[in-house]
Write a structure and sequence with these properties.
It is a single chain. This protein has about 475 residues and is mainly beta. It is about 10% helix and about 40% strand. It has four helices and 30 strands. The strands form eight sheets. The chain has a four-stranded antiparallel sheet, with no helix packed on it. A four-stranded antiparallel sheet has the order 3-4-5-6, with no helix packed on it. α2 packs antiparallel against α4. It is globular. The protein starts with 6 loop residues before the first helix and ends with a helix.
Length: about 475
């Protein structure tokens, strides 16, 4: 490194002095993204079509994988070690065969229970796997009690209640859709109810998306505004309310993604055209104690035609992840993720994430899972639809310029943020940059340390945080 041009910077550091980190604790961002790709990936694997996240475990499916049999599919289990993921095991059911397409949807019930769908077979099935402290093993296969189609295309679980969507079911005509409720009784998941709203029509595809919170079920549709909240009353599942957008549109994929937490619900309309064809939007509804009311429609701040904002939704602990799988970032249709804070009915955008190691048509944000600390975003496409995923930490550090309490390696505070941004932090970064320590100096997370990283850190340093 040329020491001559660093002298003015050193003078600036000395003149500025300590700069306190004053970010509000609620201000969090996307950071520390780990790219995940299939170990034996092939064309049309569609890796990350289904994804799930729970504490120490991550599950990612490849419905088109030929590892077991032609297009049979497989689910890869990862275990979290700190901020990194390590491959643990590949799983599949015992009755799998060619063209089974395992893994169209995945969901953890708890830390040791995983539900895996095979919705592309007739009538569809959901397999239950449990962790026995050594391996993930299949314990049950769930099927609809009647003739259904697309059973398992979506599902959501909370405590002992599991709701499963069947978007191609013919309950009210071709592909009108349905949803099924199962309840855990002892060691078994047993069928409890079939949900078919009375005004479904052909091609509504009710059940394409599902979510559950505090005993309420939220079930979306692909067409026709058929998105409903259900609740259990006296042992019977009833419609609490149909959610209808205030603008009355029925042709913008309203309900193609849903998320609910407490008295707040979000419904994606990925083909919304208010900002341009298929730019997308997300509707927010709040329950006031008697009914659900739309309070706002959220638009992408970086929205362009074809972004498909609202392709996926995940809501946890007041933080909302939104996928925009059609966004043109580095490449056409590479995809983008948005992060929002949801507090007292208000929504504030916190950050966006643009993938760096993808190709055109990667479709990042096609699927998403979120546990409040990590956002797992699926990119099932790419030129050959091999697929990939990003494991993104949320809120790693509120003050990115604060790196150390001392620039002396022998000091106990070396490498430990101390709440101030001062000369020690600058020289700590300078050493990391000169030595090529990627974990510290790669500010823009593109895999190397260059001038863009150095001046990026300098920007953080000058503002304090």
């Amino acid at each position: 490194m040329n020491r001559y041009w660093t002298k003015p910077l050193i003078l600036i550091v000395a003149l500025i002095g300590p700069l306190p980190c004053t970010l509000n604790a609620q201000q969090v961002d996307f950071c520390n993204a780990q790219l995940l790709t299939p170990e034996f990936g092939q064309s049309w694997d569609q890796y990350s079509e289904g994804i799930a996240l729970s504490n120490d475990w991550v599950a990612i499916s490849s419905p088109g994988s030929d590892v077991v049999a032609l297009n049979a599919g497989v689910v890869s289990m990862f275990r979290r070690l700190g901020e990194e993921l390590v491959h643990y095991q590949d799983i599949w059911p015992t009755d799998i065969g060619p063209h089974y397409s395992l893994g169209w949807h995945l969901e953890f019930g708890d830390e040791h229970t995983l539900f895996v769908a095979a919705a592309n077979i007739a009538p569809g099935a959901v397999h239950v796997f449990e962790f026995d402290d050594t391996d993930w093993i299949e314990t049950q296969r769930l099927e609809p009690p009647d003739v259904s189609d697309g059973f398992g295309f979506s599902f959501a679980v909370e405590d002992d209640v599991l709701v499963i969507g069947a978007k191609w079911e013919r309950a009210r005509g071709d592909e009108s859709g349905a949803a099924y409720v199962f309840r855990e009784i002892g060691d078994s998941w047993d069928f409890e109810a079939r949900l078919v709203p009375p005004n479904l029509n052909v091609w509504n595809r009710f059940g394409i998306t599902t979510d559950i919170s505090e005993g309420r079920l939220l079930v979306g549709s692909e067409n026709g505004r058929q998105t409903y909240v259900f609740r259990n009353e006296g042992g019977e599942w009833i419609i609490e309310q149909q959610l209808i957008p205030d603008d009355g549109s029925s042709s913008r994929a309203f309900g193609s993604s849903v998320a609910i937490e407490g008295n707040t619900a979000f419904v994606g309309a990925s083909e919304d055209d208010d900002l341009g064809p298929a730019t997308g939007s997300v509707y927010q509804f709040e329950f006031d104690g008697s009914e659900w009311n739309q309070v706002r429609e959220i638009y992408p701040t970086k929205g362009e035609d074809g972004d498909l904002f609202g392709s996926s939704l995940a809501l946890r602990d007041g933080l909302l992840c939104v996928g925009a799988s059609g966004s043109d970032t580095l490449f056409e249709d590479a995809g983008r993720m948005y992060l929002y804070e949801v507090l007292n009915g208000q929504v504030q955008e916190l950050d966006t994430f643009d993938p760096l190691h993808v190709e055109s048509s990667s479709l990042l944000g096609h699927s998403v899972a979120f546990d409040g600390l990590f956002c797992l975003a699926g990119a099932r496409g790419g030129g050959s639809e091999t697929g990939s995923a990003y494991f993104i930490q949320v809120g790693c550090q509120s003050c990115p310029a604060d790196l150390t309490g001392s620039s002396d390696p022998s000091d106990d505070t070396y490498g430990i943020p101390d709440g101030d941004v001062d000369a020690d932090d600058f020289f700590f970064y300078l050493d990391a940059f000169a030595n090529g320590e990627i974990a510290i100096c790669d500010i823009d997370m593109d895999g190397d340390c260059d001038a863009a990283d150095f001046f990026g850190y300098l920007d953080f340093f000058v503002v304090g945080c």
